[in-house]
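Suppose a colleague, Dr. K., hands you the sequence of a protein chain of 337 amino acids and asks what its three-dimensional shape might be. Before reaching for any lab equipment, you can write down a predicted structure in token form. Begin with the sequence itself:
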Amino acid sequence: MTEVARTALPMADCHNDLLLGVLHQHERGLEDPFGDFWLPQLRAGGVVLQVLPVFTEEQHVGEGALRRALLVIEEARRIAELHAADVAICERGSDIRSVIESGRIALVLALEGCEPVGHSLAVLDTFFRLGVRLASMTWNRRTMLADGVGEQDTGGRLTGLGVEAVHEMERLGLVLDVSHLSATGFWHVDEVATRPFVASHSSCRALQEHPRNLDDEQIRAVAARGGFVALNGFGPFLAAEPTLQSYVEHAAHAVSLVGAEHVGLGLDFMRDLMGVVDPILGAALVDLDDLPWVDGLQRPADLAGLGPALTARLGEKAAAQVCADTMVESLADLLPA
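The predicted structure, expressed as tokens, is then:
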């Protein structure tokens, strides 16, 4: 078993697209990119719970989406088998607590966008059987269920199928994720949902006007439903010139609105991912060094420094809740028993 880093606080992260990067590298012939890079990073950052999105890249949207999603899930299963001493995929709430208590990292699979579902809600059952426990209806674009933030001008709410999907997710025990959903779609979810929902990787629009951020009323609505908002650490969501303190201020703002029991981390670490996944963003058109990365918050190992920064701003109890306790306790309660 890999040695756990001695950090001030354990960390739970609601969004890291590492599965996509691992799949790309595995397809290029690397035997164990998770063990070579991501596992040491997670351990160095003190991560005890990691939500792993299953994301559909643009080139796979359409009939290829389901095939690609299945391959991403298979990659997660392969990781869990190769590194059974260090990680385990959790399908029940009780699994989360027992895995963490054993010293392993609890992994939870999430469907980032229902593009692989298409118009067949029975596929949600399939994903649930495969271990997926969180699901968002879209990723910025339009799906058969809803419009993402990239379609704000349409003013679209959920489709009729989308409303059915909310009820089906609740029946199955899939936690609904509203990150990436359009504002009107968000409020439609709030109207029809009967169970708590979460925002896996969104920050505060009051501090940074970005379409992917939530305004104060939305953050309060998530908390009122019994969910949590996990704050995104990608620079453009935080400030014009983002720093680690920018992230801390987003946390402080969210906590001031709804309390630390409804706030968590959803870092969305992109730098290492973009370097291996997207040949356009990673090499041809954009120099990664020119993007507004947050110094001291670029990859999981950097989380070792986030705990002290949050503690200094929020105090020990609230910082511990934001860093891990809120998410661990919430997902342990929201996932099926």
